[in-house]
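Quick one, probably user error.
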C-alpha cells in the first residue's frame, strides 16, 4: 500500500492510497467467498463454484467491486494508523480508480483546543428564597386542580368547561364536524383557532351560535391558512369548578400525611425551594460553561461540523415526524428558507462541538476520568428506578454505544462539579497538581 499525505487547512488531512497487488489478494478472496454464496452457476452447487468459474460468470469488475467494499474501511484505518493521525471523525473516502485500486481519503483531525485561564472563572451564586405569594399561588393551583366540575345554569364565562357540537366550514367545504366536544373556555386556548373561546362567552346551554374567524397565515393545515372559517356551534352544557375552602379538610384531601393546612403549606414551601434550587443550579452551571466557552479557542474540521449539523437536522426531522409536521410546513411557519435552516444548524453544531471539546479539555487538565465502577453505580441507579422495566432497560443499555454514552455522562458531571468549584472560588482540590499554565496548552491531532 502506497500512501501520500497532504496536510490541508482547517484540521484535515488528505491521504492518497494506492492499493498494491499483494494488498488486494485477501480482499479478492473475501469477495469470492461472499459472491459465490449468492450466485447460482449452472453445473455447480450453490457456493461450490471455483473462483475462476465464478469470475468468468459474474465478471472481474463485479468481484473487484465487492472487494473494494471490504478494503475501503480497513485500508483507510491502516493508513491513518501508519501516518499516526489523531483522527477526529469519520473520513470521507472516494474511489479514484480501480486499476490499480486508488483511494482518496479526507480525514478530519481531532480539534485543536486551547483554554485561556479557565481557573480564573468566577460566577456569583444566585440567592434562593421562597416568597409567601408563591406558596399561595401553588395552593390556589392545587385548589383548582382538585375542584370538581359542576353544571351551572348561566351563560358561558371565561374559565368554564362547555360541551359542544362544532361544525366548521371554509367556503362551502366542511373541514370539521364533531359531536360532544368538551372544550376549555380559556381566552388563550389556540384550538381550533384563537378567538373561538372568546366567541363562546355569553352563550347558554341549548343555544346555537354561528360566527366567522380568521385562520392564521401560519396555520398547520396549509389548505386553511390565511382564509376564514365559519363555525356553527351548539352548546349542550356549561360547567364551572366549585373551589373548596382552603382549610384542614382540604389539606387532608390533597395527599396522605397532611392533617393541617399549615403542614401542607410547609411541604409546598419545601417543594418550591427544592425546585428553585435545581433551577438556580442549572442556570449557574450554564453561566459557568458560557464563561468557559468564551475562554476557549477550538479549531474544528468543517467535516466535523457538517456531520454534527446533519445529526441535529436528522433529530429535528424525527421530532417533527412524531408531531405529524413536515419540515416544509415547519420552515414556512418559522419564516425561514432551507438554506437559512441549514446554516443555523451549522452554527448550532459549531457551538455544541466547542462546548463539548472545552469540557473535555478541562477533564484532561484537571486529571478527571469516569471509572467503570462510577458508570456501574449510575447504571444501577437507573435500573432501580425502572421497576418492572429494569430487565428491558438493562438489555438496551448493554451495548458499547450505551456504555460510552453513560461514561460521557459521568465524566461531564465530574467536570461540571469541578468547574462549579472553580467558579465559586473553592479549594481547587485534586486539580491543583495541574499548573494554571497548562490551561494554555493545546490539544491537537496529526
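Nope, works fine. Designed sequence:
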Amino acid at each position: 500500500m502506497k500512501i501520500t499525505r497532504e496536510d490541508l487547512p482547517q484540521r484535515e488531512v488528505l491521504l492518497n492510497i494506492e492499493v498494491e497487488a499483494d494488498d488486494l489478494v485477501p480482499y479478492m478472496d473475501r469477495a469470492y467467498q461472499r459472491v459465490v454464496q449468492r450466485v447460482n452457476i449452472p453445473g455447480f452447487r450453490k457456493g461450490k463454484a471455483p473462483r475462476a468459474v465464478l469470475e468468468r460468470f459474474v465478471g472481474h469488475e463485479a468481484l473487484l467491486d465487492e472487494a473494494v467494499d471490504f478494503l475501503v474501511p480497513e485500508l483507510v484505518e491502516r493508513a491513518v494508523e501508519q501516518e499516526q493521525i489523531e483522527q477526529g471523525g469519520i473520513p470521507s473516502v472516494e474511489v479514484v480508480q480501480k486499476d490499480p485500486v486508488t483511494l482518496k481519503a479526507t480525514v478530519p483531525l481531532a480539534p485543536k483546543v486551547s483554554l485561556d485561564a479557565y481557573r480564573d472563572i468566577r460566577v456569583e451564586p444566585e440567592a434562593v428564597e421562597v416568597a409567601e405569594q408563591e406558596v399561595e399561588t401553588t395552593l390556589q393551583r392545587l385548589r383548582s386542580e382538585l375542584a370538581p366540575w359542576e353544571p351551572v345554569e348561566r351563560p358561558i364565562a371565561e374559565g368554564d368547561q362547555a360541551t359542544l357540537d362544532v361544525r366548521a366550514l371554509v367556503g362551502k367545504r366542511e373541514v370539521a364536524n364533531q359531536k360532544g366536544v368538551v372544550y376549555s373556555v380559556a381566552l388563550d386556548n389556540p384550538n381550533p383557532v384563537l378567538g373561538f373561546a372568546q366567541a363562546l362567552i355569553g352563550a347558554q346551554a341549548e343555544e346555537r351560535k354561528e360566527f366567522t374567524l380568521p385562520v392564521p397565515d401560519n396555520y398547520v393545515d396549509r389548505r386553511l391558512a390565511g382564509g376564514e372559517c365559519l363555525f356553527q356551534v351548539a352548546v349542550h352544557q356549561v360547567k364551572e369548578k366549585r373551589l373548596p375552602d382552603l382549610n384542614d379538610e382540604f389539606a387532608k384531601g390533597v395527599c396522605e400525611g397532611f392533617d393541617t393546612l399549615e403542614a401542607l403549606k410547609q411541604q409546598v414551601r419545601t417543594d418550591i425551594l427544592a425546585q428553585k434550587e435545581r433551577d438556580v443550579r442549572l442556570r449557574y452551571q450554564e453561566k459557568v460553561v458560557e464563561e468557559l466557552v468564551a475562554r476557549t479557542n477550538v479549531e474544528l474540521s468543517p467535516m466535523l461540523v457538517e456531520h454534527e449539523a446533519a445529526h441535529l437536522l436528522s433529530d429535528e426531522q424525527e421530532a417533527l415526524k412524531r408531531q405529524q409536521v413536515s419540515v416544509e410546513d415547519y420552515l414556512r411557519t418559522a419564516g425561514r428558507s432551507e438554506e437559512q435552516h441549514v446554516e443555523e444548524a451549522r452554527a448550532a453544531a459549531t457551538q455544541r462541538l466547542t462546548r463539548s471539546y472545552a469540557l473535555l479539555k478541562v477533564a484532561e487538565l484537571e486529571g478527571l476520568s469516569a471509572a467503570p465502577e462510577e458508570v456501574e453505580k449510575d447504571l444501577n441507579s437507573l435500573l432501580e428506578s425502572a421497576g418492572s422495566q429494569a430487565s428491558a432497560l438493562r438489555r438496551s443499555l448493554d451495548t458499547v454505544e450505551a456504555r460510552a454514552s453513560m461514561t460521557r455522562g459521568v465524566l461531564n458531571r465530574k467536570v461540571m462539579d469541578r468547574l462549579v468549584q472553580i467558579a465559586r472560588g473553592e479549594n481547587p482540590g485534586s486539580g491543583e497538581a495541574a499548573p494554571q499554565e497548562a490551561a494554555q496548552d493545546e490539544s491537537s491531532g496529526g
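The chain is about 50% helix and 20% strand.
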